[in-house]
Every structure is written in C-alpha cells, then in structure tokens.
C-alpha cells in the first residue's frame, strides 16, 4: 500500500466509525444497533476492530458501490430526525433487500451541533478535535459536511473505479457528496449530470443566513457541473416560485410532479435521455430525497408533501436512465424514522423505509454494474 493510500486509510479509521454508530446515544435504538452489528459482524460487542480490519479489504472488494452513512440533520430545518436514516435504512436493506451487496465504509463521526467547519472559530475546532480525535491539534475536520467531503475526496483519488452511496441525514449532506464526485469526474475527463428527486428545488442561495443547508445545496454545486442544465430535477411541487423562475434564474432543468403524472414517467424520461445524449453526458449521480414521493409513501420525513410521485414512477425513470447511462454515485436522503407526520400512524415509518430501501437497492445494484 502506498504512503498516500495508507494515510487515507488512517484518516477513515479516525474520521469514520462502524456502520450504525454515527449517532451517539446511550439507549435510543440500542436494540436496533445491536441487531445491525449482529447481522454485519456476527457479534454485538467489540465490533470496531472487525470494522477496521474490513477497511483494509476495500481495494480488493468486488463491489463498486461503497456505502457511507452521514447521521446529521443539523442542516435541516423543519422536523428533525433524519440523523437516524443511516441506521434504520441499513437495517431495512438487510432484512427486505438481502440480495443487495455493497462495501460498507461505516458512518461519519458526527458531532450533532455542527454543520461545516467554516462556521466555527479556531477554539471550537480545537475543542472538537480533542473530543473526536484526542488531539486538539489534529489535522482532521470536525463537522459532518467537512469530514464527508474530505473522506470522499480521498476515496475517489485512491479508488476512482468505485463510487459512494451516501445515506443521510438531511439533504445538506448531498453538497459534499456531489461536490467530491463532480470534482473527481471532472479530473477523469467525464461529463456528468445530477439526477435530483425532490419535492423542493433546494435552490435557495441561503436560508436564514446559512448558505449550506437542506434548501440550498443544489445552488452551490452548479459551478462544478459541466453546465447548469446538467442538474435535472424530478418531483418538484412545493415551491413559492414557478418552474420558469427556477429554470431561467439558475439554468437547471425541472420536471414537476404534476407533469410526470399528466404526461407519464416514460414520456418524461425519454425527453431527459434525449437531453443527456445531446449533452454527451458520460455518467450520472442520483440524489434522492424521499419526499419526492407522495406522503402516502413517504410520511416519515421532515417535509412530507402531497401530490408527489409514486414509487413506480420513480423506478420507471431510474430504470430507463440506468439502461442508457452508468450510475456511478448516488444517495438517499431525509428518511426520518421517528417522525410521524401522517395519519397513517405506526406504519408510516415502515412504509417510508420500505420504499426507500427498494430505491436504494436499485441504485446500489446499478452502481455495482456501472
């Protein structure tokens, strides 16, 4: 192993933790954490050495898809709880989609009060480095967005043939995931596009003075795309401004939920494939906010919305795209299992997780083939 790769592996051993451990709690979901450890490692205690040992097999893994959990909802802003997404979605994938397999990097170590290091003063960074790494002069970042981008940069540098499947967390997490992906693909000479499923445009410049959050991340990755219209959005319906405003202001391409419903998902995706081919796009990144689905299917999320896409419509679009273009990066965001904002009661979380797992399984499989 080269010195550079060895240094990267040392970094992920320090900045990440075993799968499901990204949320630091004492008793909440303790049984679910234990069940995940049992399935992954065959034991519930002392799993960290097993996880670290597994990291050394990353280069030899046959899987092109590597899962990374980012248990942060500090960049959210309505109902919190998406920090539990990585733990719960992994568990659902293992039980309901057992045929799907990927390398699991683990979770980013998250201090839940932090978002990005640029918002912190030197004293706070030093204190947090001491807490995370037992070294107040550590070279490592301390905030989830900063750690994620740094880890992903190193991942793509050393494993360019692989891709990361990120599990959030609120949608601000997609900023470092897509930024690292787009930078790496640009260096490889690849033309890319972001396929973004969401009820919301996420095209604010800032929200309450914060420029990186769940409602603004798309705005800040546009500069890393070959062109703004390489951001293609599906399922939009909750917006204070019109489709024309967003497309003319930012140059993106949108397909709102009502258009998909009225014209048919197959018709819409044909238009998108034609656009992507004309733009000579090589590879796709899919960012999926679960609230792109109608609240009937995705109520356990921070901002559920009616009038949304069905899982079948989403799968029709993804299936058609994957037949024409390699999907080499993806994420699933905003599943908040402990929220219950619908009248569906106890089953709302189960339904949201089930549909999120189906879509995640498809994306992971597509990445492994990509």
TrEMBL record:
Gene Ontology biological process terms, A to Z: putrescine biosynthetic process from arginine, via agmatine
Keyword Hydrolase: yes
InterPro entries in UniProt: Ureohydrolase, Ureohydrolase_dom_sf
Family stated for the protein in its record: Belongs to the arginase family.
GO molecular function, one term: metal ion binding
Entry protein name: Arginase
Species classification: Bacteria, Pseudomonadati, Pseudomonadota, Gammaproteobacteria, Alteromonadales
Keywords, in A-Z order: Hydrolase, Metal-binding
Annotated source species: Pseudoalteromonas rubra
